[in-house]
Amino acid sequence: MRALVIVDVQNDFCHGSLATERGDEIAALIGAFQHSEQLQDNGYARIVATADNHIDPGAHFSKNPDFVDSWPAHCVAGTEGTQFHDEIDAQQFDAVFTKGEYSAAYSGFEGSFKDQSLADWLRSADITHLDVCGIATDHCVRATVLDGLKEGFDVRVLTGLVAAVDNARGDEALAEMEAAGAELL
Ligand SMILES: [Zn+2]
User: Fold this and answer.
1) Distance between Cα 54 and ligand 1 center (Å)
2) Any idea what the CATH number is for the domain that residue 18 is in?
3) Distance from the CA of 116 to the center of ligand 1, in angstroms?
4) Where in the sequence is the domain holding 32, given as residue range(s)?
5) CA 99, CA 182: separation in Å to the nearest integer?
6) CA distances from 58 to 73, 81, 164, 166 (A)
7) Contact by Cβ (8 Å): 84, 92
8) pLDDT of amino acid 77
9) Is 114 known to be catalytic?
10) pLDDT at 161
11) Is 99 a catalytic residue?
């Protein structure tokens, strides 16, 4: 059975403190996809989201960020920036895996929902295949896809529904995901 994993489509990554160039556009496309025939055809048994939810993530935040390993403050727990983009239908999610309270946590597989990890939750729902989309291609999507493969899931990346921080790095990340065994759709 297949699940859809929507990575970090949160305000700060779309039009907030760490906005990606195409964040708002991709959020609208994912929102449309959530109510599309294509989504019905894909027959997802579960639809989940991941969300950055930082409290004190250490060196992940910096006043002088390099935008590779350190970042301006973003998705601080309890703020508007952590909320899903308005175009996203959060009612559709079977679970939201929050991550990064005290760490960088790029991968959704570092997240938890009701004390359950994403991998355990998916396995207990008999999910073997994942489709992944969201933000950012070169960071949290990349890490989530690579961890999904390591956890033994069959992973496809919905390349029309991802936004990068840096477009060249985004393309490199997609190539890396494909080399690791992901299918690029
Ligand atoms: Zn973060």
Assistant:
1) 7
2) 3.40.50.850
3) 20
4) 2-184
5) 23
6) 11, 18, 23, 23
7) no
8) 98
9) no
10) 98
11) yes
* Number of domains within the chain: 1
Q: How far is the CA of 47 from the centre of ligand 1 (A)?
A: 22
Give the distance (Å) from ligand 1 centre to CA of residue 52: 6
30 CA → ligand 1 middle, Å: 20
| Tokens matching residue 124 | 């207990």
C-alpha 164/C-alpha 80 separation (Å) is: 21
- Catalytic one among 14, 52, 99, 131? 99
8 is annotated as an active-site residue: yes
- Mean pLDDT split into 10-residue runs, the chain, 185 residues: 98 96 97 97 98 97 94 97 98 98 97 98 98 98 98 98 96 98 98
pLDDT number for residue 71: 96
Q: What is the pLDDT of residue 141?
A: 98
Q: Which residues surround ligand 1, an ion (CB under 5 A)?
A: 52
**What CA–CA distance (Å, rounded) separates 44 from 31?**
15
- Contact at 8 Å (CB) between 17 and 72? yes
Cβ-in-10-Å burial (0-12, 13-18, 19+) of 17 comes to: middle
Question: Among the options 14, 75, 133, 140, which is catalytic?
Answer: 140
Q: Output the pLDDT for position 26.
A: 98
How many whole angstroms separate alpha carbon 113 and alpha carbon 167? Answer: 31
